[in-house]
Fold this protein.
Amino acid sequence: MVQNMFRTGFLVRATHTLLTWVITLVLFLHNTDLRKCEERGELLLPVLFFLLVVLSVLLYFAVSLMDPGFILSDTVKGAQGSHEEMESMIPQTSTPRLRRCGYCLLQQQPMRAKHCQTCKHCVRRFDHHCPWIENCVGERNHRWFIVYLMVQLLTLLWALHIALSGISPSVTWELWFRVNGFLLAALGVVGVFSVVVALLLGCHLYLASINCTTWEFMSRHRISYLKNCESEENPFDRGIFCNLWDFFCICRTVVWEKMYHRTTTNSV
């Protein structure tokens, strides 16, 4: 039973939720701006902050539990016909052939897909497996992962400001640490997470703007459809505006083999 809890990510999700609400409770109970607003009867800011925390938790669970784009098997009805149709659309002279997955025995692994050994499935437009959400980030949940990072960063920065507002002076260092201990602990946790989330958000926005994934960026030299490209060439790049528009606004499965062919054809 304990092993199943680890495998399903229950412990990670429970830890995230518990940590979030403990820090929120610390910020509300100490003499912070939130507490002062409550005492004055000004409930707008406390309510907005509470709703932002709730939104961040809901987005966390949405991204964590969402199907990232698993490719279940070749045995799905109609899969063979769709694969034959896909191959007929792809000029084999310019595009690498579809690969066979050696782990889940998928006969034709779509371009930009990769097998995740943690999730035990191939994932479309695989980006990475995130241990904090205990799920892969792929074609179906990558945009929501970035939206979650945006909301989480906003929540953390606001919490950082609230925690700083509650630090009160004392006569001695010992008394100061005793009075502000919980706030200092919350400040440390929120500060570390703010830096991590800001770096993650910046990296993922950059990768989305050039239509690249973390896996492709880190392992370019080992990926069959990228290793023969020039160092600065990206066969999926359509320009920053189109890349971001497609990433955030186009909710459909993309046949990347067609995109690859069009890009290479245009570049010639």
Notes: Residues 163 and 183 are 6 Å apart (CA to CA). Strands lie at 70-71, 114-116, 121-123, 128-130, 135-137. The mean pLDDT is 84.
